[in-house]
TrEMBL record:
<dbReference type="InterPro" id="IPR007867">
    <property type="entry name" value="GMC_OxRtase_C"/>
</dbReference>
<dbReference type="GO" id="GO:0016614">
    <property type="term" value="F:oxidoreductase activity, acting on CH-OH group of donors"/>
</dbReference>
<keyword id="KW-0274">FAD</keyword>
<keyword id="KW-0809">Transit peptide</keyword>
<dbReference type="InterPro" id="IPR000172">
    <property type="entry name" value="GMC_OxRdtase_N"/>
</dbReference>
<dbReference type="Pfam" id="PF00732">
    <property type="entry name" value="GMC_oxred_N"/>
</dbReference>
<protein>
    <submittedName>
        <fullName>Alcohol oxidase</fullName>
    </submittedName>
</protein>
<feature type="binding site">
    <location>
        <position position="278"/>
    </location>
    <ligand>
        <name>FAD</name>
    </ligand>
</feature>
<feature type="domain" description="Glucose-methanol-choline oxidoreductase N-terminal">
    <location>
        <begin position="320"/>
        <end position="334"/>
    </location>
</feature>
<dbReference type="Pfam" id="PF05199">
    <property type="entry name" value="GMC_oxred_C"/>
</dbReference>
<comment type="similarity">
    <text>Belongs to the GMC oxidoreductase family.</text>
</comment>
<dbReference type="InterPro" id="IPR036188">
    <property type="entry name" value="FAD/NAD-bd_sf"/>
</dbReference>
<dbReference type="GO" id="GO:0050660">
    <property type="term" value="F:flavin adenine dinucleotide binding"/>
</dbReference>
<feature type="binding site">
    <location>
        <position position="137"/>
    </location>
    <ligand>
        <name>FAD</name>
    </ligand>
</feature>
<dbReference type="InterPro" id="IPR018247">
    <property type="entry name" value="EF_Hand_1_Ca_BS"/>
</dbReference>
<feature type="binding site">
    <location>
        <begin position="145"/>
        <end position="148"/>
    </location>
    <ligand>
        <name>FAD</name>
    </ligand>
</feature>
<keyword id="KW-0285">Flavoprotein</keyword>
Length: 592
């Protein structure tokens, strides 16, 4: 049976009034119900995982299969994919799924102003606040993203490991073990070198595009080759697409009779609790000397509930680079000044929310001859990874062979609705700064757990970020000038040429274009940094939060340095590595 793609339309005032009215009625019903509620269940689990995104799902799966006779509670603020809109299941509509708040936290960044790098006497506005999508659904952002599998460079993981001898467990060899264990690569007839670097039995399905790229995208490769850019069929980049399903954790269910007279026994399983918004961590208040996590307090179906961990259990935060630091700060772990101004008791002063890393991207758009674009494409079919020039010049051939590239340019079909106001056939070249120098931060706006934190991206605060972005955009222009793009497909750039004098674009015009057009590529990380405490760390090498017990964080927020590529695969890797650390510690506790 055929199914039409759902149409995204803007809500009007009448829609908003209806929403508010239904919420009012729902709230009245909950309050009336509470008048008669006399009992509550004391929930106890071996592990409580906060967040059912990539990290939470991988971690739950590995723990339930790695430790016998345990039960796990996974709390997810959103719902299952099947309860969401139909866009999630369609790869070609990922950019529309990001715009729907039923699967998104709806974050918006703070306005950013700074001195111009080209003309320092001028003040420029980078962004007046941009939507900052974060998945609020089973699978988290992996249910909404463009399905690109990239691990990043070995050098960056070795940099993680260089922070001290105990951090060696995060070097490239250890991380590669996790990548391979997770990966299920479907490439036909792989050579021996490929086999050494990839896994074929994991749950992270990775495949090359079916039937290859179509004509205009294939010819884009030829255009890039004309400039001396080498072809590589395995850089873990855009030419590999990924699908994933870690939910076989839910398939392991056992029952063990309880020993207590009034006990119900113990169900060995993963309990995923949807629409459960975690409010804060529950601490052992009887122990005034230590910060011992004993559970979490959360809001579900109009009620505040509590879940506790067994004596040797742990609370593990897997809520991503925005929500994980917010939960820690609401629980009293974070910057002293920000906590006190929001009337939160400071339990442990740590730089939570600092070190916000992201990959800013800037789009270069060109229209092409009609009927050359396949709109069923999920996009991200071709990737150009290169080193940019720090002076803003077009990269030279030596930059294409540099062992430490800092940019990836994704070539995507220009689909209707992808860019507001443009409904033409064409190509979008998305230059993404993979190794940014600028660092942002986030902080609490209030002690209200439903309030958005203030997100400060600080894009292009460092001048080298700006000039490297200009360099990459200039490369995109040159690629589109090459045959067959300029000849067969009659590709013509738009937007940048509309606002400037054609090829004669000044640095000031480039800066204005970059600051106006740059957006997030949905890769926030680093806000709960894994590092020595003396070096701005929030968690140690085993992902345990400093100054606490029974509390870890395992997601993209722990990245000390952001990987040079899409962050889904590295996030899964971190969760897999975390599971091994947790299993080691749990086994040791039980042997005492």
């Amino acid at each position: 049976m055929s199914q039409e793609v759902p149409i995204v339309i803007e809500k009007n005032q009448e829609d908003l009034k209806k929403d508010a009215k239904i919420r009012e009625l729902w709230m009245k019903n909950i309050c009336d119900h509470d008048k008669h509620a006399k009992f509550k269940i004391k929930e106890t689990y071996d592990f409580i995982i906060v967040g059912a995104g990539t990290a939470g799902c991988v971690l739950a799966r590995e723990l339930i299969h790695g430790i016998p006779n345990i039960n796990i509670l996974v709390l997810e603020a959103g719902g299952p994919n099947v309860h969401a809109n139909g866009l999630i299941s369609l790869p070609c509509t990922w950019f529309k799924a990001f715009r729907l708040y039923d699967c998104d936290w709806g974050y918006v960044t703070q306005e950013q102003k700074m001195k111009s790098h080209v003309n320092p006497i001028k003040e420029v506005t980078v962004k007046k606040g941009i939507p900052y999508p974060r998945g609020k659904v089973w699978g988290g952002c992996s249910s909404l993203n463009a399905m690109v599998y990239i691990r990043g460079q070995a050098k960056q993981y070795n940099d993680w490991a260089a922070q001290g001898p105990e951090y060696k467990i995060w070097d490239w060899d250890h991380c590669l073990e996790a990548f391979k264990a997770l990966e299920n690569n479907s490439r036909e007839n792989p050579d021996e070198k490929f086999k050494q670097l990839h896994g074929f039995n994991g749950l992270h399905h990775v495949q090359d595009p079916q039937n290859g790229a179509y004509d205009i995208m294939s010819d884009l490769i030829d255009a890039a080759k004309n400039l001396g850019i080498p072809y590589n069929d395995d850089f873990n980049g855009e030419r590999q697409m990924e699908l994933e399903d870690f939910r076989d954790a839910l398939k392991k269910v056992e029952f063990h009779p309880g020993s207590e007279p009034n006990g119900f026994g113990k169900v060995v399983a993963v309990d995923v609790r949807s629409y459960s918004h975690v409010l804060e961590i529950i601490w052992d208040e009887e122990n005034q000397k230590e910060n011992i996590a004993i559970g979490v307090r959360y809001f579900c179906n109009g009620n505040v509930r509590e879940a506790f961990i067994a004596p040797k259990g742990e609370v593990i935060i897997c809520s991503g680079a925005i929500n994980s630091p917010q939960i820690l700060m609401l629980s009293g772990v974070g910057p002293k000044e920000n906590l006190e101004e929001n009337n939160i008791k400071v339990r442990k002063e740590l730089p939570v929310g600092k070190n916000l890393l992201d990959h800013p991207g800037c789009c270069f758009i060109a229209k092409s001859a009609p009927n050359t674009i396949h709109h069923w494409s999920s996009g991200a079919e071709i990737g150009i990874i290169h080193k940019a020039n720090v002076e803003g010049k077009i990269p030279c051939k030596e930059d294409f062979f540099d062992e430490n590239p800092d940019f990836q340019t994704i070539a995507m079909p220009l689909q209707p609705g992808l860019v507001d106001g443009l409904n033409v056939d064409g190509i979008l070249l998305w230059s993404i700064l993979n190794v940014p120098s600028s660092v942002g931060y986030l902080e609490l706006n209030s002690n209200n757990p439903f309030d958005q934190p203030r997100i400060h991206l600080n894009y292009f605060e460092k001048s080298d970020d700006l000039y490297r972005m200009i360099s990459s955009l200039k490369l995109s222009r040159e690629i589109l000038k090459q045959p067959p793009m300029s000849t067969v497909y009659n590709v013509k750039e738009i937007e940048i040429s509309d606002k400037t004098n054609g090829d004669d674009i000044s640095d000031e015009d480039w800066e204005k274009f970059v600051l106006e057009k740059s957006v997030t590529t949905f890769h926030p990380s680093g806000t709960v940094k894994m590092a020595p405490e003396s070096n701005g760390g929030v968690v140690n090498h085993r992902l345990q939060v400093y100054g606490t017990k029974n509390l870890r964080v395992a997601d993209a927020s722990i990245f000390p340095y952001i990987p040079s590529g899409n962050t889904n695969a590295p996030t899964a890797m971190v969760a897999w590595r975390a599971s091994r650390l947790i299993i080691e510690d749990y086994t040791r506790k039980n042997s005492l």
